Structures
1.
Amino acid sequence: MKVQALISIYPLKTYSLSEPIDEFCKILKDKDLKVQTRTMDSLVIGESGVIFKSVQEAFEQIVEKYDIAMDLKISNACPEEAKKKQMKGQI
């Protein structure tokens, strides 16, 4: 199932805020996920299984180098999916 995830990475105890975020997003992009980096979060679109697995892998890799806090929200009501359901009369 296609989902979208809203992910915020908060680097702690570091001078470079962008470096851990950039590394995290690169890992997700390398998994062929659509990643749109925004001011306070990143929007990730893809198959749910790929997103869950990729976010876990990215988190585990990043915390080896940095202290971070992560906020993750996932929705199956992606604009594309909602549009398909609406066209089928399910909404």
2.
Amino acid sequence: MLDPVFINGMKELFSYSRILNISGEAGSGKTNLLHLVAELLNNDESCIWVQANELFPYNRLKQIYNYQKSSKILDLIFLLPKNRPIQSYEEQHSVIQNLTNHNTMLPPETKIIVIDNISHHLRFEVGSLRTEVAKVKTIQNQFYEEQLLPLISLCNRNFINLILIHEITYDPTINDTRNYFYKLYDRINSITIVLRSQMNTQKKKMEISYSDSQKIFSYTIEHKGLHIG
């Protein structure tokens, strides 16, 4: 169980912005934040989980919660696609278009949409065009206008929280890592969680930012999920 202070703090932040960006290197605990999704859902609310690159972490869910609780959580989560991750940039575009279409019937009481990993296929789409700056910018802008903005509009219209999980890249301007295509996401008024490993210790660092405010938590990854403190 996550610390109630942390959960209540996240609920308060979602009252300011419906968008949460989560980034961190492999092993930093991004998957364990499905814990956060489970704690934010009430009994009659549901979540749409888009398997944009990673399969939904069934095994981790079953480690964190007992059978009864994990089964109840799974009943509240609707996977897109159902049995596999998205295979290409074009398929992701189609999935998000269908999801955000005004005629699409969302699951009852949808309160959260998770996309894991939002920019994976975009990274490969522009990967071969690094020297063609104009084409890269065009694709990135299309991604922003045709995928991100419709998602944000859908969530604002229906009072849904949007959680975007990211891979990371090195940013030489700050001598640190950031999520891929951070300049795209910097356009959005969002909450940001950055998960960082620390040298020579099992403790890791969670940086939660919104606007000009930042809060830092220490945490460890345990069998039953994240332990903050």
